Amino acid sequence: MSDPVPLTTDHPGQVASATPPARGRSRRLSDRGLAVAFISPALLLLLAMSVFPLLWALYLSFTDYSATRGGPAHFIWFGNYTAILTSAQVHQRALTTLIYVIGAVGLQTVLGFAIAYLISRRTHGRGLLTTLFLVPMMLSPVVVGLFWRFMLDAQFGVVNSMLGSLGLGQVEWLTRQRTALVSLIVVDTWQWTPFIMLIALAGLTAVPKYLYEAASIDRASEWFRFRNITLPLVWPLLLIAVLFRAIEAFRLFDLVYILTSGGPGVSTETLSFHVYKVAFLGFNTGTASAYGILMVLVVIVLTQLYLRYLNKLKEG
Amino acid sequence: MRYPKRIGRLSVPGRRVQLATAAMLLVATTVAACGDGKDEGAEASAPKAPATIPELTKDPLTLSFIWFDWPPAHALEDFANAEYKKERPNATIKVNTVPNANWHDAMFTQFAAHKTDFDIAILDSQHIGEAVTNGNILDITDFVKKNIDVAAYNPYLLAAYGQFPQAETGKRDENASLYGLPLLGDTWTMIYRKDLIGDKPPQTWDQMISAAEKCQADNPGVSGLAFHQANGSDAAAVTYNTVNGVYGGNLWDSKTRKIEGVINDAAGQEAMDVLVNKMKPLTAKGSGNWFIDEVNAAVAQGKACIAFNWIAASGGLLDPKQSTLGTTREQILDKLGFATLPSQKTNLVPLGGMGMHVSAYSSEANQAEALNFMEWFERADIQKKWAAAGGVPSRTDALQSPEFLNAGPFNQVYTDSVPRMRDMWNVPEYARLVNIENTNVNAALNGAKKPKEALDDIAKEQQSVLDSSGRRGGGGL
């Protein structure tokens, strides 16, 4: 450590010496070099943990490699892709996933926006209400799945017990084809509606007050104000929330694993759950890699189309 | 004053250098990742264990097992630490447990990485084919010849937990290789309410269904039957396989590897019909996802007249703290009876239980300790002690010993069931075969498929798995 710079001088006759100039940076380390030095650890981590595995999965997707059988990977080019795209099993899981995504995200959007709208109109207790509504989102999906599994148990569950006290019959929530998928949608909605609510609330808070004031002066109705001021201004933000939720819902695994194991039969098996089975039951690594890559591609393409729509909306 | 340099796009040569560096980095990473060429092109086969146990280390050592989380796993850790330490004070036994549904994945993902945090894998008998074909466990044929008294076992038990290729039901091929030794024997027991259906258990499957039907009608709130129906693990598959065996069906023709036309023949169809149309209506509503714990809970809560469960998982039924059937073990036993499964066209029962298998990726010192542990565990006196500690031994002398027969009311059931056992397929494709059967039987039990459709789908899909070994692309779909 260098000595402190004297503030006074022992010799009043002398002019206090100025602080010596900072030593120039080594010529070898330019600004750009410094930037690279700071960025490279993160860049290397990203390369090792994300980029390399993605490229490696891409390579394996063109082979018949199996992680447990060992031996060399033989190139089969688009064999895995053709098999996946023409498989009736995959089509069935894609349909299940589509129904799930539309059902869950649709319900969450309506409920999330409605809750956010009601909260935004309150002047007192808004913070407390928002925090309480956010609690489900903070829980682990596995924990959520486990306690909903107990609550939805046909014999001992609290939901059927409540239905019973209302004079209604027992419902087999998790073991019947239709109710099982509905149960998944309900549980996912319980957990993730707060996410949509949070983003919608941010949008609603950002709507300029003077617009409402102007509408009031013009004696515009409540519905008119909602339809022509609130909704158009919140809509783009809401669509971004829907995009995030749709991507999340598309790769649903944990709730299915805990609540239904894909059953009854395979009626609640989503694409992600099916990839898991392909990857770990038979250790068909090549096929599972191709399956994963295709899922990523689907998400990227749909996201691009969606973003274009969003941009057009903004421009409009 | 020094102004910062304007940061803009690099000149073309600079960008080229960066691109080239990035490309080289990527290639180097790829080469490094592919560089572990040990398994590339290597023949997949199990390495051999020495016939004689190598010199054991005197340093502190932890011998690790992997199993799923259930009472026998905890019993094994306690028993081994109490007894094995008397001979090997420097050794500590650790039984790592995972949920049942993750058991296969937990073992085989580590095998895939060629690095295991366990020395002894406790494999289901059907996992042996997959582990042997991939070279994941040691071939202990020579070790067994030199250290184990094979005549002390029912030959089929020794074959079921160790032999590959799979033995014919009830037999052992003495020329075949062995890859494991029995750890815990198991089969299904019929648990019946003596106070509701009488002291004498039903002798045939038809009688059992009639008794359950009558009991359910006479006792509102109590269901006639409780059994495994879930589509996780092998739950629903074992249930169908049991009924299939009792009604004279077969799962496959192992010699010709034929499933289509075998499992769904007339006997197989009858078994599926009995299961879905006669047994399922006698179960509790919403029991379509029940497995071991749920069946035990139904029995302990007095909600089932007759239930089927694995013997090794039945100990908790006698615990008054977990039961509403009585405040003492004796009171519970006044109400609960345990019997071998009823017979019908045959008297087959499902083979359960697991064997000990040495990881090929464990260190030499730990492999030596593992072999020593197995030799110790299979000794006559230790097998009797294991029986007294709550385990199910496999040596015939231990199975007939008072230590075992007096340890639990269901142990006599196991001893009587040993000559009646039948296993599933022990082939590398087991995990996929059982998944197909589980999901389809579960679908039939829960009304998602018609029984015949489900059985025909099982036959078709399983046959396709066995026939697809040479297919290029789409394996696993």
UniProtKB/TrEMBL annotation, chain A:
Main location: membrane
Keyword Transmembrane helix set for record: yes
Region annotated Disordered, chain positions: 1-26
ABC transmembrane type-1 domain residues: 94-306
Compartments (UniProt record): Cell membrane; Membrane
Pfam families referenced in this protein's UniProt entry, alphabetically: BPD_transp_1
Keywords, sorted A to Z: Membrane, Transmembrane, Transmembrane helix, Transport
Family: Belongs to the binding-protein-dependent transport system permease family.
Protein name from the UniProt record: Sugar ABC transporter permease
Organism superkingdom: Bacteria
Organism the protein comes from: Plantactinospora alkalitolerans
From TrEMBL, chain B:
Keywords: Signal, Transport
Classification via Gene3D superfamilies: Periplasmic binding protein-like II
Leader sequence segment: 1-33
Bilayer-crossing regions: none
Top-rank taxon, per record: Bacteria
Similarity annotation: Belongs to the bacterial solute-binding protein 1 family.
Name of the protein in question: Extracellular solute-binding protein
Organism of provenance: Plantactinospora alkalitolerans
Upper taxonomic lineage: Bacteria, Bacillati, Actinomycetota, Actinomycetes, Micromonosporales
